[in-house]
Amino acid sequence: MSPAQAERPLPPALSAATEHQPRAALATGAALAGDPSHAYLFQGPRGSGKRGVARAFGAELLAAAAADPDDTRRRALLDPSPHPDLVWLRPPGAQHMIDDVRERVIRASAYRPFEGGRRVFVIETAEALRDESQNSLLKTLEEPPAFAHLILLCSEPESLLETIISRCEVVAFSPLPAAAIAEALASEGGTGETAAAAARLAAGDLERARFLLTEDGGRIRDQAQACASAAVRGDLAGAPWRELLTGAEAVGEEAEAAARERLTDEAEVAGRRSAKEITDGAKRAGRRRRTEVLDLGLELCAAWLRDLAAVAGGAPDVVFNSDRHEALARDAADRSQAALMNGVSLVQQTRRGLDLNVSEELALEALFFRLESLLGSR
User: Fold this and answer.
1) What does pTM read for this prediction?
2) Mean pLDDT of all residues in the chain?
3) Nearest to residue 173, comparing CAs of 53, 58, 16?
4) CA 344 → CA 60, 245, 360, 375, distances in Å?
5) What's 72-127 look like in SS3?
6) Which of 30, 258, 364, 378 could anchor a disulfide with 241, C-beta 3.0 to 4.6 Å?
């Protein structure tokens, strides 16, 4: 690549999408200036902008080989996109369906472009690919048609086979800084102390910050705080963790209903799914969302305890729950900073343990009684 190519500015949509991801900007810019790879793995935390970068990058790949680049780019940037050479695969539930991967990516990638000279296939949430699906993809990744480009988006690369990763050019994404999340929330009307706290609590995930500002997200945050505060006060008679479980269940049910509606609409258009497949896919989506929200609730519990440790240590300016200083000061009074940080470790251990198919209610009950023993008033 020549120095002139290296200094070529990014197209506007791609520049905006990579504003806080300099490594992604460098990698995609180099690809567009030179010879793009046949396969990319965009890996990094949820909410770090991988989806937006993939859409902008895919649009440029298609536009570069099109007779009308501007119209191609415009259609490819739409979500959902009507461009026939941009295939976007999202898991219908907890996992990708093997038939979708085979039909919409593996077999479809063998057909020449409908327009222009390229086809782009994006697989969102690649960690949801079963081993069977990943193994099926290997040949396509090893010997792709010259016109086909695959982009895999992944938040948990440890879930991918090493053979998949080795056949892709890896583009690393970092968590978004809290200031960038706050700026994005402000552009969407989210201002004030609550929005600032959501940006800090999001752990670099813009989608999580947006969720925390919804009614459901605010309820989960309140329930998580109630659990942690009850343990600190030594008042667990009301079993507050049950409210957290109920809240996660409600969000999961909403996700299941939304997935069922989407899968039904897709089936009416393409006719690829049976009623059972729609039901099963919707249930998987609901379970997955429920698990995500319960994990978020525990992470918020840990954040509350960590903030209490900061207040107890005389550093209230670094707390994440910056809109709840009075409650933090009340819970932190006369507490040991070391004990509070040990409490954070207990919460994180429970989060990891939930992956082992233990009883969630029993695990949460054990956690909060252990926290009460460690921190509670006696």
Assistant:
1) 0.76
2) 91
3) 53
4) 45, 19, 18, 11
5) HHHHHHCCCCCCCCEEEECCCCCCCCHHHHHHHHHHHHHCCCCCCCCEEEEECCHH
6) 364
Residue 149 is given by DSSP the state: E
Q: Which phi and psi (to 5°) does residue 349 adopt? A: -65, -40
Q: What is the pLDDT of residues 261-317, one digit of tens each?
A: 888 877 776 556 678 878 888 888 888 889 889 999 999 999 999 999 999 999 999
Q: Interior CA angle at 212 toward 208 and 217, to 5°?
A: 115
The H-or-E segment that residue 43 falls in is strand 39-43
Four-CA torsion 351, 357, 360, 362, nearest 10 degrees: -110
* Count of helices and strands (H, E) across the chain: 17, 5
Q: What's the rounded mean pLDDT across residues 54-58? A: 98
Predicted confidence (pLDDT) per residue in 86-144, tens digit: 999 988 766 788 888 999 999 999 999 999 999 999 999 999 898 899 999 998 998 88
DSSP state of 270: H
Cβ pair 45, 18 in contact under 8 A = no
Angle between helical axes of 50-64 and 22-33 (0-180°, round to 10): 10
Nearest to 136 by CA among 164, 155, 158, 108: 164
Tokens for 329, please give them: 């000061």
Q: Residue 189: left if φ>0, alpha if ψ -120 to 50, beta else—which one?
A: left
Tokens of 219: 């309820």
Pairing label, strands 119-123, 39-43: unpaired
Output b/e per residue, 298-330; b: 16+ Cβ within 10 A.
bbbbbbbbbbbbbbbeeeeeebbbbbbeeebee
- Helix, strand, or coil here: 172? strand
Q: Is 157 left (phi over 0), alpha (psi -120 to 50) or beta?
A: alpha
The percent helix, strand, coil of the chain (3-state, each to 5) is 65, 5, 30
Domains belonging to the chain, first-starting first, are 3-172 (3.40.50.300), 214-252+294-375 (1.20.272)
CB 151 within 8 A of CB 53: no
- Running DSSP on this structure, what letter comes out for residue 378? -
**Structure tokens that stand for 13 in this block:** 């949509």
Q: Which residues make Cβ contacts (< 8 Å) with residue 231, sequence separation at least 6?
A: 343, 368, 369, 371, 372, 375, 376
